[in-house]
């Protein structure tokens, strides 16, 4: 009975006029949605593929395939309605613990889809979407990595929309990674190492300038000492280069002993420089860490949707979603997810947004 | 969305005749479903530069009109639907509130949770400072809610309760809150009951007022600390600085250590961060209850919520209620919550 029903329905939806009308309806609804506020950044946890496969008695990999189709549908809705960034949780690091067969199947699927994607690069350009892969890529199989690189490379010139695919990802790994990167940045001496991030003026250079002006009478050989001392401070953490520095200082000492009067004013500033050349850890803020997450330039996450009725974040977007993100848990399974499930979520979001704006206006009037 | 025929073709990567699809054929299949080309390419078309170049004006305007009309209609319908849903939930909540009430009796609460297969070891709640009313009223409501929650958790057998409040006003009135909670527990258990739970109240960044002081105080007030060892409840007060700021502080310390060569950045692992953060703030809560009408974490510690079960009652505008608390526990134990005990 159920199968005849399903096949009847399939036949009905495949009729050209019905198909055309459905298509028109979708387009119109999406067009209508565009008239209101639209979230800039939406994230999806694509949960329920396996359960769906179990329920409809097909193979797990087939469930993932259907999940991918649902993703394509929803991406179309998102980009057509004006969402700028979509982040999807495709694969968690924890998922490596699943059966080898399933993991391999998922990898193969990812590869196929990525190959298809790179074959149709110009189609993606129509949406102006670029693909970014978030996560610890080194955990992936090499052939998949290659395809990921290719897809990212092919689409990187597009800037009107972004698709973030969290491939081997967990939120904790991301936080850990960005903490690590921040520490790395702050334990590197500032000058000339990272020109695009920092100002064009280096502190050591200015200090040197001041010094040379303070000591105009000092001979030229002294002016060479501060930069050498400077390399000492920069390679301070590097035990390998310590011997080099020792060599330097040993060659230096005779020179400084020759002009003994100038050593003390030179040595003193180098000691203060030792800490100054490294950035002050107190300047670390949450923005610094955000800058090192996988989504440094994405707009704040407005909406996070999780399907299949599980009310957890499961280690997704922890850093991004714990502030003002609205989190929605839906009962439907991911392969069933479509415009018609997503529409109420978007509408409610718009409705709330309108209310917030009204409240803000009301509040503004009250205070005025 | 592509039609069923096309999606079938994509799915199997073959045409109906069973031939392999080539990339160009795939593109041909998709063509009618794609959005129009971006405008730039059309303006560069040399034909359209003539003086009699026709541009569509009416049709886009009509389309826009239809869309905004439809938008208004959808929203009118939808907001009525939301209102109906809100009314439905409000009625349901009322019904639950009448059916399940604690009557300030620990035995009743105990009976409500008796059949649950598991009780969260660490329960966490997010409380909001009510925006309306004066600051004093708001604080009063907040203190009241915190006290009630403490009493319910103690009665339900939850060993650890963490209360998150964004602004930190609760944290700053910690001694006062402790007195209030003791008083509430007395009203639940009676002043001299041997089963009256002991509490300890602490907060991550305020080490001054913490466990060594509190057991004395509870012992002093009831004086009947028997060998029966009553239930002990640890209450943890959190605010926005225990979220991101903790991670930032940890990063600062790590950066400093790295600058002094005491650690290399590659030594930083999830285990290290986890150990540090769980020690300085808290471990992972098992269940997080939100008393608002939607799920927004408001700066709740991000590191810890990773696997926490999040519960909220849809359209709950009544604030902190016993029935919401109980429903969360039922949900956590995967038990069905029904009308009628």
TrEMBL record, chain A:
Residues 249-275, 283-293 have a biased composition (Polar residues). It is an enzyme of class 2 (transferase). Keywords: Transferase. InterPro entries: UPP_synth-like, UPP_synth-like_CS, UPP_synth-like_sf. Its EC number is 2.5.1.-. Residues 183-300 are annotated as: Disordered. Belongs to the UPP synthase family. PANTHER family: DEHYDRODOLICHYL DIPHOSPHATE SYNTHASE COMPLEX SUBUNIT DHDDS, DEHYDRODOLICHYL DIPHOSPHATE SYNTHASE FAMILY MEMBER. This is Alkyl transferase.
From TrEMBL, chain B:
Its main location: endoplasmic reticulum. SUPFAM superfamilies: Undecaprenyl diphosphate synthase. It is an enzyme of class 2 (transferase). Keywords: Endoplasmic reticulum, Magnesium, Membrane, Transferase, Transmembrane, Transmembrane helix. The keyword Endoplasmic reticulum applies. The keyword rRNA processing does not apply. It is found in: Endoplasmic reticulum membrane. Residues 38-48 have a biased composition (Polar residues). InterPro entries: Nus1/NgBR, UPP_synth-like_sf. Residues 1-54 are annotated as: Disordered. Gene3D superfamilies: Decaprenyl diphosphate synthase-like. Belongs to the UPP synthase family. This is ditrans,polycis-polyprenyl diphosphate synthase [(2E,6E)-farnesyldiphosphate specific].
């Amino acid at each position: 009975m159920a199968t005849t029903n399903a096949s009847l329905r399939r036949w009905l939806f495949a009729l050209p006029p019905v198909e055309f009308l459905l298509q028109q309806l979708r387009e119109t609804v999406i067009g209508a949605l565009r008239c209101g506020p639209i979230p800039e950044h939406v994230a999806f946890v694509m949960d329920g593929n396996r359960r769906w496969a179990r329920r409809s008695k097909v193979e797990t990999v087939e469930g993932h395939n259907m999940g991918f189709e649902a993703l394509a549908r929803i991406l179309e809705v998102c980009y057509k309605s004006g969402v700028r960034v979509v982040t999807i949780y495709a694969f968690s690091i924890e998922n490596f613990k699943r059966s080898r067969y399933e993991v391999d199947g998922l990898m193969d699927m990812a590869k196929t889809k990525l190959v298809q994607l790179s074959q149709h690069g110009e189609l993606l350009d129509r949406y102006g979407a670029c693909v970014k892969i978030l996560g610890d890529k080194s955990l992936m199989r090499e052939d998949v990595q290659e395809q990921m690189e290719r897809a990212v490379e092919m689409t990187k010139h597009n800037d009107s929309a972004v698709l973030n695919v969290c491939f081997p990802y967990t939120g904790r790994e991301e936080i850990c990674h960005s903490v690590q990167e921040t520490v790395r940045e702050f334990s590197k001496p500032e000058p000339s190492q990272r020109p695009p991030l920092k100002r064009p003026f280096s502190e050591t250079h200015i200090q040197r300038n001041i010094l040379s002006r303070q000591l105009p009478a000092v001979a030229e050989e002294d002016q060479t000492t501060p930069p050498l001392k400077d390399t000492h401070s920069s390679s301070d953490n590097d035990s390998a280069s310590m011997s080099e520095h020792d060599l330097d200082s040993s060659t230096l000492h005779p020179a400084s002993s020759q002009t003994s009067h100038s050593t003390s004013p030179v040595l003193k500033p180098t000691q203060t420089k030792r800490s100054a050349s490294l950035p002050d850890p107190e300047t670390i803020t949450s923005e610094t860490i955000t800058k090192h997450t996988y989504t440094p330039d994405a707009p704040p996450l407005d909406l996070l949707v999780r399907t299949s009725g599980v009310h957890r974040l499961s280690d997704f977007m922890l850093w991004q979603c714990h502030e003002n993100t609205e989190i929605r848990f839906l009962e439907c399974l991911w392969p069933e997810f479509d415009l018609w499930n997503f529409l109420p979520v978007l509408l409610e979001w718009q409705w709330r947004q309108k209310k917030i704006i009204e409240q803000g206006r009301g509040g503004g009037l009250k205070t005025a | 969305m592509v039609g069923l025929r096309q999606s079938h073709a994509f799915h199997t990567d073959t045409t109906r005749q069973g031939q392999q699809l080539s990339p160009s054929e795939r593109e041909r299949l998709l063509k009618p479903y794609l959005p129009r080309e971006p405008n730039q390419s059309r303006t560069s078309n040399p034909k359209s530069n003539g003086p009699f170049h026709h541009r569509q004006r009416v049709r886009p305007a009509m389309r826009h009109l239809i869309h905004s009309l439809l938008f208004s209609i959808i929203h009118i319908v939808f907001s009525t639907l939301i209102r109906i849903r809100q009314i439905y939930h409000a009625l349901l909540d009322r019904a639950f509130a009448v059916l399940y009430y604690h009557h300030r009796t620990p035995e009743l609460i105990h009976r409500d949770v008796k059949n649950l297969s598991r009780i969260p070891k660490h329960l966490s709640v997010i409380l909001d400072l009510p925006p309306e009313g004066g600051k004093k009223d708001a604080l009063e409501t907040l203190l009241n809610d915190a006290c009630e929650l403490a009493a319910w958790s103690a009665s339900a057998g939850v060993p650890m309760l963490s209360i998150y409040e964004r602004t930190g006003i609760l944290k700053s009135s910690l001694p006062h809150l402790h007195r209030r909670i003791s008083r509430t527990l007395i009203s639940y258990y009676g002043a001299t009951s041997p089963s009256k739970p002991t509490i300890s109240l602490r907060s991550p960044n305020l080490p001054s007022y913490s466990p060594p002081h509190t057991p004395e105080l509870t012992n002093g007030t009831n004086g009947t600390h028997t060998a029966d060892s009553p239930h002990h409840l640890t209450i943890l007060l959190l605010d926005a600085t225990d979220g991101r700021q903790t991670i930032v502080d940890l990063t600062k310390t790590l950066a400093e250590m790295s600058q002094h060569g005491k650690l290399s950045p590659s030594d930083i692992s999830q285990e290290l961060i986890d150990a540090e953060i769980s020690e300085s703030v808290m471990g992972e809560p098992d269940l997080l209850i939100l008393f608002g009408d939607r799920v927004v974490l408001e700066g709740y510690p991000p590191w810890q919520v990773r696997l926490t079960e999040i519960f909220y009652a849809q359209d709950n505008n009544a604030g902190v209620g016993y029935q919401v608390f109980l429903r969360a526990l039922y949900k956590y134990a995967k038990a069905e919550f029904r009308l009628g005990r």
